[in-house]
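Dear support,

I submitted the protein below through the web form. The confirmation email said the job was done, but the results page showed an empty box. After a refresh the structure appeared. I'm attaching both so you can tell me whether what I see now is the final result or a partial one.
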Amino acid sequence: MKNLFCLLTLLIVPAVAFSQIGTIEGTVYNNDTKEPLAGAEVKIIQTDERQKTDENGKFAFGSVPEGTYTLVTTIPETELIQQTSVVVIAGEKQEAEIYVATEQYRLEGVEVTGKRVPKTVSKKSIQAEEITRLPGTAGDALRALPAIPGIGVANDFSGALYIRGGSDEDNLYYFDRVPVGYPYHFGGIVSSLSSEIIDDIDVYAGGYGAEYGVDSQAVIDISSRNSSPTDFGGKFNLNALYSEGLLQGKIGKKGFWYAAGRRSYIDLFIGSFSFDTGSITAFPRFWDYQIKAGYDLSEKHQLFFNLFASGDRFALKLDGDNVDQDFRGNTSFESGFEGLGIHLRSFLTERLTSYLSLTRSDFLFDVNFGPALSLNIDAPSYTLREDLTYELNPKHRLESGLILGIEPGQVTGTFTRIPDEGEVDYDIRFEEKTALDEYVRGQRIEGYLQDRYTLLPFLSVVFGLRFDYFNRTDELSIQPRGSLLVELPNNSELQFSYGVYNQAPIPALLSPTIGNPDLKPSRASHYILELKRQISQGTEIKMAAYYKDLEGIATSDEEAAYLNQGVGYAQGTEIFLRHQRGNRFFGWISYAYALSKRRDRAGEPYRPYSFDQTHVATLAASYNLTPTWEFGAKWQYRTGNPYTPVEEAKIEFDPRNGRPIYIPIYAETNSDRLPAYHRLDLRVSKIFQFKGWKLGFFLELLNTYNRKNLLDYRYSDDYKTRDDINQLPILPYLGITAEF
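What the results page shows now:
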């Protein structure tokens, strides 16, 4: 797992000389919390002397001859190396304050200086500090990701990510090495993980190495904090949707813990209310919590434990003449997720590192939709994972891993087949309802081997091989992956990657009752080219071009329910220009072009994919006017989503009751688009400092100029007229935080 820190800044205060030798003393700090950082290693290259910082972050070198030296500061368990020149003046003590900071945005991956093993391509990252400062997100971690080029969402109410022409079903989420099956409440209103405990989020948009990739084309790897800045502290947040709290502390001198929780509260004030066609009997509510503890068993062994869970629920009753007979009565929705993990990280030798994890995750889903439809899913997963890293030298590293998984699952209820993506003729009222009572026992074996090697000062390569076996598809897949990095003049890098990524069908498509248990995994081949240049200190430009070839996509079939007969492709370019001035200002301009198409069956034409967003442009900036006042703005433009228009309607008789009804006749699938989307969000925040604690306020103005962004159309009963359904109007959003 890639760790957190990517930039070290050294401030040197020289003194006046009066003898032939001097000393270097200093302190290493965490730049975010300003707390001393214990365990960092500081080394003088010329003398090979090295020191580890003590519990107060301090180090000291005595009797250093006068001259210029290079200090190398490294952070344990990371790949970070920072070289800094230090001038020792004879007879005086040089006091150094080293602040370890995190880079706010990294398109390709972790940035380090000097020679190192090659990086992972197409890795996009956002840090905790930037999450809380980005306008339009209300400090929500996952809601901040669509500001990064190549990542989109369908609308204001959805958090599901569309990454480089793919759908949300192509994404795999991890939280501290535990798979997350429920990253959003109610599909995207707010993420199910508190931003207060998140350290960083790495999004692998494609072309990534062999260490990731079960049933996915993109990976969202979320890491929480691995330390506590104080012996005991807390933070509380109250905003328009929910309230949350965080408590944290240290376990002696070798450990830490935190506990965070959130709950929506509108349901506490609005128990139920009625409307024209029914009543809400249980107002929507959500909750989640996250708990983590870590402890250094010894200098070579670290133990971590994490537990997190989330849940959503609402209920309503529909009645009246305008409600279809299948939907009348009580409707309820309840879903949730629980994750649990215990992890042991061991430094077996100076070169060999082990990371062992035992995890359990459980996805729960229970919906009752009128008298005719119901679905109950209980899908736990148990995983044992071991990752080994062996560093032959600073330029050559071998990686391997083995993952064993058991996935028992129970599905009961009465439901229909699952419609294809883009299938507009699907009408749940007239689909055949089938009783479900299925128990499945999935078994997985996954493994990988990978070699990262710097061949020449300007040339690095990564070769990897991944294998997956899933008993429900009964297929062993071999997936080669690799990348090539060339360092160019003028602080530039060019990187090419290729990879094969297999993806098993979603469980519903493998159902023996409503699906096809003989389906095989689909297969995607990724080709990615990326260029990065550091224009000046604090200013960089990054560009990427990609092509994805897709085959074996499961689509509906009249005889076999589903077959691996679909194909498709996605291609695009991205450009990202960013400027940063310390912690006072950051801003960027980004543009992404994408084209994503599918062909559902042989002989049919290619059509736009439902998640195709051709053009996305983003401008974002945040400025600290003073240490306590900050202002930010974000503007985004997106091409409208594809949709299938209604051309006309015909009258047929309802087979359930013989009444005449209008049935729409559609044009070609996704043959039109909704109008373009654009929106401006503004943010202002203020912090009040008190002795021992601080109080913060933020105000966001969403959709500042009240753009009427179209969500969908609502048709009349005869489909002759339609009304617009819009997304969020102009909306103020206020939040209050208290921290001690």
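Response: this is the final, complete result; the empty box was a page-load delay. The first strand starts at residue 7 and ends at 13.
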